[in-house]
Amino acid sequence: MDQFTINLLFVGGSFALYIGIAIWARAGSTSEFYAAGRGVHPVTNGMATAADWMSAASFISMAGLIAFTGYDNSTFLMGWTGGYVLLALLLAPYLRKFGKYTVSEFIGDRYYSQTARIVAVVCLIIASVTYVIGQMTGVGVAFGRFLEVSNTTGLLIGAAVVFAYAVFGGMKGVTYTQVAQYVVLITAYTIPAVFISLQLTGNPVPALGLFGDHVASGEPLLAKLDGLLVELGFNEYTTHNGDTFNMVLFTLSLMIGTAGLPHVIMRFFTVPKVSDARWSAGWALVFIALLYLTAPAVGAMARLNITDMMWPNGTAGEAVSIETIENDPKYDWMQTWQKTGLLGWEDKNGDGKIQYYNDKAESLQARAEENGWKGNELTNFNRDILVLANPEIANLPGWVIGLVAAGGLAAALSTAAGLLLAISSAVSHDLVKGWLNPTISEKGELMWARVSMAVAIAVATYLGLNPPGFAAQTVALAFGLAAASIFPALMMGIFTKVNSRGAVAGMIAGISVTLIYIFLHKGWLFIPDTNSFTDAAPLLGTIKSTSFGAVGALVNFAVAYFVSKSSAPIPADIEKLVESVRVPRGAGTAQAH
Amino acid sequence: MSDNSSSNAYWSANLRLIVISLIIWALVSFGLGILLRPLVSGIAVGGTDLGFWFAQQGSILVFLGIIFFYAWRMNSLDREHGVDEE
């Protein structure tokens, strides 16, 4: 059986499974559509949260970004897990005690203001749509590869599938489907990692293999990798090369953003009790950590394997020849990925070999001159292909490759579905029913939900064709936006007596400065070539647009504090509400709005 | 809800726990993983140093510990102060 058929079988089989579950647990009423009737056990909820949370960014994109940068991109690992600490300690139990269905309902009630609610809804929609753009980038890569078509075609097919899939069921269908998706994605991520770790280090646990010895050379794996990279003029893998301030700020943005994203927070509304909400965050992180502890090993080991492939005779010897790439089955992956347009090479000096090295490095100039190299010839290696190509690079059996394709799609789909659900509930429930047309029928509300999903996915697909960055980088922008708007409003709502005006001014200030800063660097509305600055030379010092969310959050807190100080304090009944949110007693089941 | 003094004591106990947890949270990630890495660079861990391990593994494991400890401690604080959901 050829690889294409195997991929189709795995992807098709996993889809049939999800759709089967969605039909079996189909949402009936509106409240079921949003919150699964609050009957979900913390462990189940944790697993579903993990699937919801780990998207194309975590699965497809992150290890590639770590692989090609090394230590400096540990930010993704710390940022996307550290946010769960904030979520568990500062938000989850209180929001569950409050007992409504959506984030904006909490903000609307706590700040006793329709305006606050609408502002929150708009912030949620902006952050979620940005997030979906990142997902579509990943979906394009995954569909492009497994259907063996161009990235663009893959993206369009993927968009149709995501839409059909998200319209199908509500949260209840989604909760159980997501448990299945978690199982598929974690298996798909860890199996190749275990194989590769065994090949390279003899240790079956990738997280331990990463710090183990490289079997072939007897050196520690990371020391070996550092050595190879330096010989090719790249930075050492384990050293800190970038800017420390930006690294701290970026990590902080990801952490705060994690605790401000609606599709994750919504999950904690669906556990039976306040104490369960505390455990739930922990269980979610257990399931997430299984992937996040493996990802750095995947990155480092893939980088080692790629270097070995390009320099089969060692970095001091001859580079791989085009003849080998075209004829040796070990190099088939390069041919298949070339078709997607995401991998490319060019024999610039016409010597029939492909030299992969850092042509900007001083240390390599002499060697390049001596051997007649005319620059790096592995001209394009899209970071987002690394995880999907990884089993092929390591020459693993065909079924592993099919499994990884299914896993990558599970990751992208589950998150896209969760986000589309959050967007559609924000539009239909909060904007339409809560504001524009309170008397709308349940049927009308569901119609709005579906139309807004369709619009969101169309916008995301259009922008996904020319994404503002690799999947994980685009997603990082969404985190910045959530960090600057929603998290401060929620936290102040629970821990302080900030009033309505303060919260509204804070959210508007936070999201505006962040959005403007991002647009200045990534193009207005993410349209290419409309930017005035780049992240290589940012407007403010060393602060990249991906890291600005933490600054936006600070602006939000500060503006809210000062505006609140200079206007009337919160009314007595809201003071009571804040007191009651702080203690678990009397949580009961949630009221329908 | 129980009387005010008990719920104030409950809330300040909660805040104390949160502050301690967040100090540890920042120490392992921003601290050992990034800013304090040069200080512990002498401690070798499998081909690299302790800071690298904290940035890519250790911080995540500590985060897990913090969340489960907080959940366990808060659930017993709820009962001590009589504010749990019966």
Account of the protein in words:
The complex is a heterodimer of chains A (593) and B (86). Chain A is globular. Chain A is mainly α. Helix content of chain A is 69%, strand content 1%. Chain A starts with a helix and ends in an 11-residue tail after the last helix. Chain B has 86 residues and is mainly alpha-helical. Chain B has one domain. Helices cover 73% and strands 5% of the residues of chain B. Chain B contains two helices and two strands; from the N terminus they run αββα. Chain B has a two-stranded antiparallel sheet with strand order 1-2. In chain B, helix 1 packs antiparallel against helix 2. Chains A and B meet through helix 5, helix 11, helix 12, helix 14 and helix 24 of A and helix 1, strand 2 and helix 2 of B.
Spatial strand arrangement across the major sheet of chain B: 1-2
Structural class of chain B: mainly alpha
Bin the strand percentage of chain B.
Answer: under 5%
Q: Characterize the largest beta sheet of chain A: strand count, sense, and whether it forms a barrel.
A: 2 strands, antiparallel
CATH uppermost class of chain A: Mainly Alpha
Specify the CATH architecture of chain A. Up-down Bundle
Number of helices of chain A: 24
Count of alpha and pi helical runs of chain B: 2
Total of domains of chain B? 1
Rg result of chain B? 18 Å
Poorly predicted parts of chain A: none
Feature tags:
heterodimer; A: 593 residues; mainly alpha; Sodium/glucose cotransporter; two-stranded antiparallel ribbon; globular; B: 86 residues; two-stranded antiparallel sheet; 2 strands
Summarize the structure.
Chain A is mostly helical and 593 residues long.
Spell out the blueprint of helices and strands:
The complex is a heterodimer of chains A (593) and B (86).
Chain A: H1 3-24, H2 30-35, H3 42-53, H4 56-69, H5 74-98, H6 103-110, H7 114-146, H8 151-168, H9 171-201, H10 206-209, H11 221-231, H12 244-258, H13 262-265, H14 274-310, E1 320-321, H15 322-327, H16 332-339, E2 343-344, E3 353-354, H17 365-371, E4 380-381, H18 386-393, H19 398-436, H20 442-464, H21 471-495, H22 500-522, H23 548-565, H24 572-582
Antiparallel strand pairs in A: 1-3, 2-4
Chain B: H1 4-35, E1 44-45, E2 48-49, H2 50-80
Antiparallel strand pairs in B: 1-2
